[in-house]
């Protein structure tokens, strides 16, 4: 790259293209190597040319950062603050057992056959009732049940985006969203969201590029934990209405508030009908349920249902039936009260330990809800390098670059998830992080 005067980003992108075609593998902190078939399987690669048979990605490169992280060896007593996952010890197993065993809850065999692509009717109605508490007016007809909100993102992309369309996302943002938009061939415009919402930049994008979609996580943002204040929400909707912009509001965390309740969602404040609302039970219950939902205009849901038919006909009935039991019995409300109390303690424990052990080295703000503390290295320490050092100390996190459309943006930032572990391991995690930072200072 140096020899031919190619920029570092171009070289990284070229490696990513090769990696996505399976021609090379990247090992974090080591380098990029030509992929070899495992011993004894060399013949397979010669008999069927799998790589050449595969369709190209519509738009390259897609980030491989998360896959790379999974390859770092954190075996043996390591504390992972990386995945955005609730604590399995808090999964409502007893409530589930009661839901399944309850005497009046015998499942109707009819419910085990095929159901409507949009989802199990009783659950769609219960979701509409549940989100009425968040000020969102809807009926079951406006709700589609999806296999996690990740599938909702995919279906919305399928229904609305074609190659060359523009999508605006916050920067940083949830990696699973910007990758799904990129995979549909859309071009991504990013809005920096540190501090005030950049309205003039957004307006500039709206006028110049006429984007199809704005994707936002207004409440306890992933990865920054930011909460969009109510006045910003109203201003955003006014601007969106003027430009007839579709706003995709992703809201997995709003029930996980640790101080006062968050402001009303964009969907609740929407009076021009342009907000599509997306949420999930992955964060408030457990991710293996694979159940999320989209609330949108029936015309959009209808098109999404056509796309969903191609991939799974409808989401899993048992998960939907179980959720109905939990929602009818108020079990979700009880569970939320429990986890809010617990996660608040964990947030405070991690924030305190970070200040105590890493004080000078890191900047962060304590989030008012959600799962994440977003840190910035005060010294010129790259988070990828810190992750390597941390692997040796037995703690992990997600480096900031994973959340940006244009790495190496975010190279000095990283995300810590504070809900997966109890207070003691969180404090130990902060201590290990401090040791990793000290280790880098010495080198
Ligand atoms: N959106 C956001 C903002 C998320 O943080 C996540 C999970 N990390 C998802 C969507 C996907 O969630 P699900 O498990 O429902 O697919």
TrEMBL record:
CDD domains given in the database record: AAT_like, WHTH_GntR
Name recorded for this polypeptide: DNA-binding transcriptional regulator, MocR family, contains an aminotransferase domain
Taxonomic path: Bacteria, Bacillati, Bacillota, Clostridia, Eubacteriales
Subunit description: Homodimer.
Source organism of the structure: Desulfotruncus arcticus DSM 17038
Cofactor(s) needed by this chain: pyridoxal 5'-phosphate
GO molecular function list: DNA binding; DNA-binding transcription factor activity; pyridoxal phosphate binding; transaminase activity
Annotated InterPro entries: Aminotransferase_I/II_large, HTH_trans_reg/aminotransferase, PyrdxlP-dep_Trfase, PyrdxlP-dep_Trfase_major, PyrdxlP-dep_Trfase_small, Tscrpt_reg_HTH_GntR, WH-like_DNA-bd_sf, WH_DNA-bd_sf
Keyword terms, alphabetized: Aminotransferase, DNA-binding, Pyridoxal phosphate, Transcription, Transcription regulation, Transferase
Pfam families registered for this protein in UniProt: Aminotran_1_2, GntR
Domain of life: Bacteria
Similarity-based family: Belongs to the class-I pyridoxal-phosphate-dependent aminotransferase family.
């Amino acid at each position: 790259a140096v020899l031919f005067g190619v920029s570092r980003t171009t070289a990284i992108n070229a490696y990513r293209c090769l990696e996505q075609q399976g021609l090379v593998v990247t090992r974090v902190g080591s380098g990029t190597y030509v992929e070899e078939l495992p011993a004894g399987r060399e013949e397979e690669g010669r008999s069927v040319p799998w790589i050449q048979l595969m369709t190209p990605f519509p738009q390259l490169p897609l980030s491989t950062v998360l896959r790379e992280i999974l390859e770092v060896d954190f075996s043996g007593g390591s504390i992972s603050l990386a995945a955005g996952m609730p604590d399995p010890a808090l999964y409502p197993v007893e409530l589930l057992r009661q839901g399944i065993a309850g005497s009046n809850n015998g499942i109707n065999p009819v419910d085990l056959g095929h159901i409507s692509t949009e989802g199990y009717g009783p659950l769609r109605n219960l979701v509409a009732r549940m989100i009425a508490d968040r000020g969102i007016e809807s009926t079951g007809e406006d709700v589609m049940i999806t296999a996690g909100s990740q599938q909702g993102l995919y279906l919305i992309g399928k229904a609305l985006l074609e190659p060359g369309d523009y999508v605006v996302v916050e920067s940083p943002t949830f990696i699973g969203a910007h990758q799904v938009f990129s995979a549909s061939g859309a071009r991504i415009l990013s809005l920096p969201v540190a501090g005030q919402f950049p309205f003039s930049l957004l307006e500039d994008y709206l006028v110049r590029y006429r984007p199809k979609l704005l994707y936002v996580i207004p409440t306890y943002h992933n990865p920054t934990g930011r909460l969009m204040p109510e006045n910003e929400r109203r201003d955003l909707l006014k601007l969106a209405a003027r430009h007839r912009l579709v706003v995709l509001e992703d809201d997995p965390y709003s029930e996980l508030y640790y101080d006062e309740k968050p402001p009303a969602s964009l969907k609740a404040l929407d009076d021009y009908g342009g907000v599509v609302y997306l949420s999930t039970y992955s964060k408030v219950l457990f991710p293996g349920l694979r159940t999320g939902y989209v609330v949108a205009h029936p015309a959009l849901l209808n098109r999404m249902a056509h796309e969903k038919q191609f991939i799974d006909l409808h989401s899993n009935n048992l998960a939907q039936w179980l959720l109905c039991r939990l929602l009818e019995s108020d079990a979700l409300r009880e569970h939320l009260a429990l986890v809010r109390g617990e996660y608040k303690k964990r947030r405070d424990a991690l924030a305190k330990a970070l200040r105590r052990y890493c004080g000078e080295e890191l900047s962060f703000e304590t989030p008012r809800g959600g799962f994440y503390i977003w840190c910035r290295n005060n010294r010129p320490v790259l988070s990828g390098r810190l992750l390597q050092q941390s692997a040796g100390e037995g703690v992990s996190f997600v480096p900031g670059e994973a959340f940006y459309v244009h790495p190496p943006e975010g190279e000095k930032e990283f995300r810590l998830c504070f809900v997966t572990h109890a207070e003691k391991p969180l404090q130990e995690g902060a201590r290990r992080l401090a040791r990793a930072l000290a280790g880098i200072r010495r080198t």
